Amino acid sequence: MDRIRTLNFRFLSELESNAELFGSVEGIFSWLNSYIHACPDFLKRSILYLSIFPQYLIIRRRRLVMRWIAEGYCKDTGNSSEEGSGEFYFSRLLSTNIVQQYPHLVTDVLGSRRMVFCQVNNLLNGYIISQAMEENLVLQLKGICSQTAQRTGRHLVIDSSWDRDRIVFESIDFSRLRSLTVFGQWRSFFISASMNVLRVLDLEDAIGVKDKDIDRLVKLLPRLRFLSLRGCREISHLPSSLGDLRQLETLDVRYTSIITLPSFITKLKKLQYIRAGTSILTEEQPTVCSSSWLSGFCRRQQLDGSTRVAPDGVKVTPAIGKLTALHTLGVVNVSDAGGKDILKELKNLIQLRKLGVSRVNKKNIKEFCSAISYATNLESLSVKLSKGNQESLDDINFPPENLQSLKLFGFVRGLPAWIGRLHNLTKLDLEITLSAEVDIIRVLRDTRKLCILRLRARWLQPGAGKLDFRVFTNGIEESCFQKLKILYLACISSEVHVSFGSQSMRNLELLTVRCCSGSTLKFSDLNHLPRLNEVWLAGSHEDELKVGIETQLREHPNQPSLKQVE
């Protein structure tokens, strides 16, 4: 037991390197049992909670952390918030290899706090489920169930494979139930009046959930802290009774048909997390995968850019600033007459760390820039500019120093110079139309922590399309983009020439290239990227581009592979 306690949570590495110590499968699971029971309570609870999610499911990190918070697993210690504690728990599970990055990366591109998806280690999944069921923690309804089986638990999981037997369902004791998670088809009888202590209702991507179901369940579940209707496309509005859920902390209605958040939402003073919006972001769409970690990195990212849709938001009340506990808000549509007032109210949300805003235009851009200058704790920002916008974002005088992720969509006169002052930026997504020749690279060269750059730019002036990733000072090439691992380039101008220097992007591993019909993209000096492993080629391109890249890759010392993706 002493030896187990000293493994410093690296037990899977120990298992793999010392398999002979265990002798058999029984020995391995006996050791795992001893290990888990030796874990601190917070870690043991977090491990067994993973049994809620089916083995095939790719889990969003934020979904897991916000559920832990709602369950009361995470405490505000003074030194760390509830969310901070949850992120710490997640990092512990990651460091022990209990959960793994999805896909399984060779290198840690963004770290646990920026990781979007994870998956339970296959070796442990069955064991975790058996332990959770043995302790009556989780009750799973799968396939065809009998009434004589286990009928109690703190967490109920309805699998997509279950036959939806109402008699079996009504035989369950709901008196201790704290969470209900539904996969697959929804049935109205899944909600019972005896579920009055339920804290978590997770219907993400459930099929057939309607507005009338939400009205009923909200009235029956007054203690909800977590409500996710994410992906329930038939939901178009929220009932007024939602305003009575005074304990609600997380509300996720993203990818529903909801276009307006009602004013009574300001009654929910404990709300920390609001996600809404009707459009699909690139980072959460299906993608092509290959065998390597690079090909799978953005599982839900359409790296070919073929159907990219910028985020569109929901309308909210100008009184949104009353929800001072919010740390995540998006995506908010500020195009209406009340848009200026909404942007002014954002200054009251001093705990805000993640913000998404759409329809920024010439009428409200001044208020937007002012609001962002006040958002000193912001770590992630997504901005969609209205069509025809002729304004600049240069008036953000004090960009958030802690900003790690920035997404900018729309027409800009030039790239804001303050982006170069974002010294903690790790992910940058630009889908922009430029009115004049702009040296994008000179603006970005000082973003020294940048790991992922996605650039889809269109130049209105013929011949202005040039991406020279070399930066010279007094004739000497500077070192830049040394942390960059993934570069995505899309060509939507008539002709764009891309070149790389010997002192830039020396750690780049994946280059993804997409050409649109009528555009031409030319590359030079790919040999200056010493760690390049893969090049993806997508879209409508001339044979000349493919042949040119193939020629350069054959001469590359690392022999990178070239993959054609749809």
Features:
566 residues; alpha/beta; 17-stranded parallel β-sheet; three-stranded antiparallel β-sheet; 14 helices; disordered N terminus
What does this structure look like?
This protein is of the alpha/beta class and 566 residues long. Among the domains are: 133 residues, no CATH class; 131 residues, no CATH class. Helices cover 22% and strands 20% of the residues. The protein is built from 14 helices and 25 strands. The chain has a 17-stranded parallel sheet, sandwiched between helices. Strands 1-3-2 form a 3-stranded antiparallel sheet. Helix 4 crosses helix 6 and helix 5 packs across helix 6. The longest helix has 14 residues. It is globular, with a radius of gyration of 25 Å. The N and C termini lie far apart (53 Å). The N terminus is likely disordered.
What is the CA-based Rg, rounded? 25 Å
**With helices defined by DSSP (H or I, 4 residues minimum), what is the helix count?**
14
Name the shape in a single word: globular
Structural class: alpha/beta
Distance between the termini: 53 Å
Task: Report the strand count.
Answer: 25
Q: Please summarize the sheet with the most strands.
A: 17 strands, parallel
Quaternary state of the chains: single chain
Low-confidence stretches: 1-9, 280-308
How much is the average pLDDT?
84
- What portion of residues is helical? 10-25%
| Estimated share of beta-strand residues | 15-25%
Keywords: Repeat
Domain Disease resistance protein winged helix: 52-103
Pfam family, one: WHD_DRP
Protein name: Disease resistance protein RPM1-like
